[in-house]
Amino acid sequence: QQHRLAQAWLLASRLRDAITLLTGRSSDVLPTEPTQLSTLARLLGYPPASGARLVEDYRRTTRQAHAVVEKLFWE
Fold first, then answer.
1. Of 50, 64, 65, which Cα lies nearest the Cα of 18?
2. d(CA 37, CA 55)
3. Which of 4, 14, 15, 30 has a CA-to-CA distance to 50 between 20 and 30 Å?
4. What is the pLDDT of residues 27-71, one digit of tens each?
């Protein structure tokens, strides 16, 4: 459980930093424009044209973290 929360925190932090580098503004929202998303993925070490993979990884990681929080705090 701790590992999943730590993974989510690290990914969110890396994304926030990369979005700031990409756009010049701090944000917690993934870009929807495919070129920006692909560039963001590259900044995080993904291979070229991996924007969709980044979104999938982000959604999976946040889903897992949400499940941990639900279990720890609401069950």
1. 50
2. 9
3. 4
4. 999 999 999 999 999 999 999 999 999 999 999 999 999 999 999
CB-based contact 12:65 (threshold 8 Å): no
Distance from C-alpha of 6 to C-alpha of 69, rounded to nearest angstrom: 12
Residues 6+ apart with CB under 8 A from 31: 19, 22, 23, 37, 40
pLDDT at 75 over 90: no
The span from the CA of 55 to the CA of 12, in Å, is: 12
Q: How far apart are CA 4 and CA 24, in angstroms?
A: 29
Tokens representing 26?
């701090």
For residue 9, name the pLDDT band (cuts at 50, 70, 90).
very high
